[in-house]
């Protein structure tokens, strides 16, 4: 028994997560439910696996923090790995990431979400509980820009989950702990890096939230996630994270820069044998902005119910749309051609990007034509290794 064989088993059974704990059998999360497989894993074995995965260079950091976040490709599967110290010893929480490039169509999301990334500045907030596909939705929005517009995109993640191939956009991905010491430092750096779009993996603390809100006010389109179950709760969580004496100003800042709030959860479809996202979408109309400024978050629920004409969706309306939908993307029925470049995370020493062919841009109703689309040019970067990569090697 080794880590590679367990991940191969998890992939074969269609699991989204693999949990390893000393003295307990491995547990797989399949379609939201946990099931155990195999024999208990000894403490010493898990300790050796953790040291091998983390590496000697970063092992001392794990001993200090008692946890580590990283991403690896194991058995051809991109994995987001959290190694943690528990009462029994060392444990693993491994998320198996999809091998396909996330898009709005492939995630079975509503096509109206394309309208959100037309904006050139503001804040798009994606919320939901753990494991509901927030990162995949962000990746789909980034890919929508990548396929249609020549913008400079900077992502700040911990760790990198989806590796993007630059198509029309110029994409830089930075991993916290490897490429930058913290979300705060990366956000401060990003404001000097001429980005058009910023993607922040998660707003975890007030300082990250403050810098994210400031970036959305200074001419950047910012996308980020927060843990909450509804749109109103997401906004309330952001405001309440700050000290009470500045919550009024934060609420006003949030109302001014907000583009949309999207709360999502996963629903299993037995007829398709897949889980599909069910969403609640809030658009900041003038009444909604007034509720945010006054911190009357409970009134947002009624605004959602009556805002269908403004592009808002309640869970109930979205569920009705899902029931009427007939064209679905099912991964088993739509196998992708293997694309090793898209599956591999950008290495710390590999600073070169690959030249990508220009894809066909689908016509989209209500789409604002970008200046890059008029010129018909794409960014092409020669696959050359920089001198910095040789130094690191």
Please identify the oligomeric state: single chain
Uncertain segments of ≥5 residues (pLDDT<50)? 338-377, 379-385
For the biggest sheet, the summary is: 7 strands, mixed
Structural class assignment: alpha/beta
Radius of gyration from the alpha-carbon trace, in angstroms: 21 Å
How helical, in percent, are the residues? 25-40%
Average residue pLDDT? 85
Number of DSSP helical runs: 14
List the helices and strands and how they pair.
Blueprint: H1 3-12, E1 17-20, E2 27-30, E3 33-36, H2 43-54, H3 56-65, E4 67-74, E5 77-85, E6 90-96, E7 122-128, H4 134-148, E8 152-157, E9 170-175, H5 183-190, E10 197-200, H6 206-217, E11 221-227, H7 231-240, H8 247-257, E12 258-269, E13 274-282, H9 286-293, H10 300-305, H11 315-324, H12 340-343, H13 371-375, H14 387-392
Helix pairs in contact: 5-6, 6-8, 8-9
What's the quick description here?
This protein has 393 residues and is an alpha/beta fold. It is built from 14 helices and 13 strands. It is 32% helix and 22% strand.
Description of the structure:
This protein is α/β, with parallel strands linked by helices. Helices cover 32% and strands 22% of the residues. It contains 14 helices and 13 strands. The strands form two sheets. The protein has a seven-stranded mixed beta sheet, sandwiched between helices. The protein starts with a helix and ends with a helix. 35% of the residues are buried.
């Amino acid at each position: 028994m080794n880590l590679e064989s367990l991940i191969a088993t998890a992939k074969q059974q269609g699991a989204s997560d693999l949990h390893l704990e000393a003295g307990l059998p491995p547990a797989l999360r399949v379609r939201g439910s946990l099931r155990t497989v195999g024999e208990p894993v000894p403490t010493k074995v898990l300790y050796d696996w953790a040291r091998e995965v983390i590496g000697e260079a970063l092992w001392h950091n794990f001993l200090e923090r008692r946890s580590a976040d990283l991403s690896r490709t194991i058995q051809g599967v991109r994995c987001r790995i959290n190694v943690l110290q528990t009462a029994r010893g060392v444990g693993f929480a491994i998320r198996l990431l999809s091998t396909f490039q996330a898009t709005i169509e492939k995630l079975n999301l509503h096509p109206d979400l394309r309208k959100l990334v037309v904006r050139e500045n503001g804040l798009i907030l994606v919320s939901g509980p753990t494991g509901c596909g927030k990162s995949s939705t962000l990746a789909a929005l980034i890919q929508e820009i990548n396929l249609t517009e020549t913008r400079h995109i900077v992502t700040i993640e911990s760790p990198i989950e989806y590796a993007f191939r630059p198509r029309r956009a110029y994409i830089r991905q930075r991993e916290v702990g490897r490429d930058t010491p913290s979300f705060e430092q990366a956000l401060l750096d990003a404001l000097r890096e001429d980005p058009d779009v910023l993607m922040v993996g998660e707003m975890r603390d007030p300082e990250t939230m403050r810098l994210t809100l400031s970036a959305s006010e200074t001419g950047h389109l910012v996308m980020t996630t927060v843990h909450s179950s509804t749109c109103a709760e997401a906004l309330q969580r952001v405001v309440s994270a700050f000290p009470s004496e500045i919550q009024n100003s934060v609420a006003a800042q949030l109302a001014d820069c907000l583009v949309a709030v999207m709360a999502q959860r996963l629903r299993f479809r037995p007829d398709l044998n897949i889980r599909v996202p069910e969403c609640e979408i809030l658009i900041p109309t003038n009444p909604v902005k007034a509720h945010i400024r006054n911190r009357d978050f409970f009134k947002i629920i009624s605004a959602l119910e009556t805002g269908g004409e403004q592009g808002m969706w309640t869970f109930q309306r979205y569920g009705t749309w899902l029931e009427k939908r007939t064209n679905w993307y099912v991964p088993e029925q739509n196998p992708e051609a293997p694309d090793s470049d898209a599956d591999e995370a950008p290495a710390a020493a590999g600073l070169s990007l690959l030249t990508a062919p220009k894809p066909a841009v689908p016509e989209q109703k209500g789409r604002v034509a970008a200046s890059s689309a008029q010129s018909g040019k794409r960014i092409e970067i020669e696959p050359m290794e920089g001198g910095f990569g040789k130094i690191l090697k």
